[in-house]
Design goal:
The protein has helices at about 15-25, 40-50, 65-75, 90-100, 115-120, 140-150, and strands spanning about 30-35, 55-60, 80, 110, 125, 130-135. It is α/β, with parallel strands linked by helices and about 160 residues long. Helix 2 links the parallel strand 1 and strand 2.
Length: about 160
């Protein structure tokens, strides 16, 4: 777009039922990405970027307390979680996913605005999960997903 690929804050109103219908009929060969972020503008725009890339099926949750139930029905291949959220932080979300027998092997990546790309280069981890700066462009988001999906990640 005119702003150099920035993630657009697009407003779309839909509830959990609409969301379930949206991904229920998608073919299973595309990797499934779950985004958990209480910032609805980021969550929606990130979902749209991933969906529109044609490479992924994406689902976003803005209430982290719904992350576990959504993950159980969506069956993600990768979960991207904002580290700092008021209702329930990213560590609590990751702990719930790890405790679930069907989800415990799904990689979780924490996003935060509290670290820079330079600080993240050393492979920092929080409770065993990668922590990365929040992407500010569509290309950064796609790169983050590609580097952390089990099928695509190197090393």
């Amino acid at each position: 777009d005119a702003r150099g690929g920035a993630i657009d804050p697009i407003t779309i109103g839909w509830g959990l039922n609409d969301m379930n219908e949206q991904f229920a009929n998608e073919p299973n060969e595309k990797p499934r990405i779950l985004i958990v972020d209480n910032n609805s503008r980021f969550a929606r725009s990130a979902r749209l970027v991933l969906d529109q890339s044609g490479k992924y099926v994406a689902c976003s949750v803005v209430d982290p307390r719904r992350a576990l139930e959504t993950a159980r029905s969506f069956k993600p291949d990768l979960v991207i979680v904002e580290l700092i959220m008021p209702q329930e932080n990213g560590i609590e979300v990751a702990t719930q996913l790890e405790a679930d027998w069907a989800l415990h092997g799904v990689p979780v990546v924490f996003l935060t605005s509290l670290i820079t790309a330079e600080e993240a280069k050393d492979g920092r981890r929080v409770y065993g999960h990668r922590i990365l700066p929040k992407p500010t462009s569509s290309s950064q988001l796609i790169e983050l997903v590609e580097q952390n999906l089990p099928c695509c990640a190197e090393g």
